[in-house]
Amino acid sequence: MHDLVIRGGKIVDGTGRPPFVGDVAIDGGRLTHVGEKAGPAHREIDADGLVVTPGFIDIHTHLDAQIGWDPILTPLSWHGVTTALLGNCGVTFAPCKPDDRPLLAAMMETVEDIPREAILDGLPWDWESYGEYLDSIEQRQPAINVAGMVGHCAVRFLVMGERAVEGLASDEEIAEMASIVAKSVDDGAVGFSTSRLPGHVLPDGRSIPGTFAAHEEVLAIGHEVSARNGLMQNVLDFTRRDMKNGELLSRLAKECGNRVLFSYTLGWTADAAKKNAAHLDRVREGDLDITALTLPRGTGFIHGLQSHLPAYDIWGQTKPLGPAWNVLRKLDLPGRLAAIANSETRDALIAEAKAADQAELHWVRGSYWMGSGETPDYLVPSNRSLAALAEEAGEHWSETYLRLAEESKGKGLFTWRWFSANIEAVAEFLQHERVLPGLSDAGAHVAMVMDCAVYTFILSHWVRDAGIYDLAEGVRRITSAPARIVGLRDRGTLAPGLRADVNIIDLDHLGEGYPELAHQFPGGAPHFLQRSRGYHATLVNGHVAFEHSEHTGTRAGHVLRHNSS
To answer: Does the predicted TM-score (pTM) go above 0.85?
Structure first.
């Protein structure tokens, strides 16, 4: 008598081999049978007509803070993700001296847009070492599995103090940092993360610690991580495609023998995929174990009447459009809707927008209407921007903006596409053998970006609708492929003996809900949520954690420590 049997589903086991119809049996949190008809069970789930896959593995999140007050880890967990990797981009909360807590919180705020007050108030801060940090997470009993990397910034601050920001480390300091990272991996970190992106800055505008660290410093750390079969994660300068920008990645893989993961986004041009692929191939120098993680759709800042307004909150401009827009910004959604319904207020808003310096409003040409239906439109052609819609309607952009806002009752949103803007280039780049789709950034930029649903998009669009991946390959790229990179030996495929992280999916009806702004973070801080449809059930370690994307109350997630099964 099995604990649970999933009956008669189309099994896509995560390895890339063709799907087959059969049963999946689970006992004691592990898979015990995958294939032909299984015996009886205490509970059975009828999966006839449904797809059965491993749980998805998200290898680029910043849930380090949110897990302190939301162990359910929504909305990521609504989209089939059963394992999330924390600690990306070099910014982590451990290791940490007590006096450095405000500094690390402030750094996370400026790099990842997570309010520092929420971080300081929402986390217990009952750790100093990385191992103690993982112990603290474990006490939160998360609904899904989490693993973590130790970040360069925290390690540098711990060893170098204020000099960590811009100073070069001495040989003694490099040795101490390498030793701390080694101890962190021994205590459970699955690897080390760093950032070479100058735009990742501290509150005073200086680039975060490690951005300009000598290669020798990172390589010394890389040797310790490699000796423990850990992962080295990196963020490059997105603006450059020269070999110097990738040299460190090549050296980590060649000289240290590291598995290397880095974030790689596409620009606007049609040849972006070819340029990125050529650069990636040069960095890999043949077959070095270097993997690029990229966004599978056009994305960037989300704005609209329910959230951020044009040219003030988000766009980094030095002045608002005018007093009327500033007043509107301070209102809640019902107040904003009432205000734009007033003809005098509307006229003032339009007049101020027309008078604004248009050179400062370049985002109008890069913003795309996501529609106002149940599902957001992420596939708007590049020639259908807000500026193009306004020209077609014979309106100023502000008139179009306000009209669409009113017609959608304030819920409709625009996306200012900063990344992966050319969907044809995205389709081409995603097919590269060493490119994985993902980069959800879950937990970061929570009031400005919402990409937790990219895994739903990968299956619903790139597999079901566009067909750039067949079902087996699409599932492999979000299950066993990221599991290998993280070093997870007991997850990512459906095979007897492995942990029972499983999705049961109605692929024909799989899709994303429309993003909505909520205020459930500590202090009422705003953040986007996005629901899903089509997930019949999601199992975590053999327990049904979500049914129809609703949490069942079960919190069966594990903290996945390095080299543990």
So the answer is: yes
**Pick from 220, 216, 80, 88: nearest CA to 154:** 88
Are 324 and 352 in contact, with CB atoms under 8 Å apart?
Answer: yes
Q: Let me know: does 454 contact 474? Beta carbons within 8 Å.
A: no
DSSP secondary structure of 129-171: SHHHHHHHHHHT--SSEEEE-EEHHHHHHHHHGGGGTTPPPPH
| CATH architecture assignment, domain 56-298+420-469+476-488 | Alpha-Beta Barrel (3.20)
Helix, strand or coil for residue 423? Answer: helix
pLDDT band at 320 (very low <50, low <70, confident <90, very high): low
Positions of CATH 3.20.20.140 in the chain = 56-298+420-469+476-488
* Beta pairing class for 51-54 and 41-46: unpaired
Give the distance from CA 280 to its chain's centroid.
21
Q: Which two tokens stand for residue 73?
A: 């880890």
Phi, psi (rounded to 5 degrees) for 263: -85, 135
Q: What is the pLDDT of residues 337-390, one digit of tens each?
A: 999 999 999 999 999 988 876 655 677 888 999 999 999 999 998 888 999 999
* Beta-bridge partner residues of 259: 231
Q: Which whole-number Å values give the CA distances from 10 to 15, 165, 459, 504, in the listed order?
A: 14, 52, 15, 9
